Amino acid sequence: MKKYSMKLLIIAILGIILIGCGKFTIDGEDGEKTTIDVGDLKDGKVNVEVEGADGEEGGMNIESDEEGNMTMKIKTDEGEFESKSGEGTEIPEGFPTDFPIPDSAALQMATTTTENEITSYSVAFTFTEDPESVYNKVKEYAEDKALEISMESISEMDEDKTYMLGAGESSSDSPEYFQFNIFASDENTGSVIYGLPTNK
């Protein structure tokens, strides 16, 4: 169902938006049914529901506003995904509150993915603090939490610097890990992916 769902969602949404229909259902070759509703498209809403031949349900919901903020949620039989972008983006609920995101951070995107009993949070942002200072704070955070550092790298090319730090363990019974990246240029950008057990 997952492969079918993803392909059909992309094709169907693009097609429906272009022709401007309200709501209809597409029957798949293997018994899947995909219902697409763009009746509220003028309000920035698109809803897609997928029902597999075996009764499994999933779908996608997109909402956007006049300020350019967008929320997208996808649910399949293998997990859930939620993405938020725009100026109104906030740190996802469940992301470790003590992680040293820079005070000046302006969030560009935040996602939450739940799959195989692990929830991973991804945050992308711009910031104005000294990149090396931010990197060192994140490294200290890993050390304070006794998360083993698995990868660290600082490289430079044409006066731009890239910082990468990986810490923690993703394959244990109680996984906790993160991957942190900084690209220091005219505008400093950073991103972090943090994984935790879903029920933690």
- The secondary structure category is alpha+beta
Morphology: globular
The fraction of residues in strands falls at: over 45%
Q: How are the strands ordered across the major sheet? A: 1-2-3-4-5-6-7-8-12-11-10-9
Which assembly state applies to the chains in this document? single chain
Instruction: Give the end-to-end Cα distance, rounded to a whole number of Å.
Output: 29 Å
Largest sheet: 12 strands, antiparallel
Low-confidence sequence ranges: 1-5
Round the Cα radius of gyration to an integer and report it.
20 Å
Alpha plus pi helix count:
2
SSE run: HEEEEEEEEHEEEE
Give a structural overview.
The chain has 2 helices and 12 strands; from the N terminus they run H-E-E-E-E-E-E-E-E-H-E-E-E-E. Mean pLDDT is 82; it is low at 1-5. The chain has a 12-stranded antiparallel β-sheet, sandwiched between helices. The radius of gyration is 20 Å and the shape is globular. The chain is of the alpha+beta class and 200 residues long. The two termini are 29 Å apart. It has helices at residues 2-19, 131-144, and strands at residues 23-27, 33-37, 45-51, 57-64, 70-76, 79-85, 106-115, 118-127, 149-157, 160-169, 176-184, 188-197. Strand 4 (57-64) and strand 5 form a beta hairpin.
List the helices and strands and how they pair.
Blueprint lengths: L1 H18 L3 E5 L5 E5 L7 E7 L5 E8 L5 E7 L2 E7 L20 E10 L2 E10 L3 H14 L4 E9 L2 E10 L6 E9 L3 E10 L3
Antiparallel strand pairs: 1-2, 2-3, 3-4, 4-5, 5-6, 6-7, 7-8, 8-12, 9-10, 10-11, 11-12
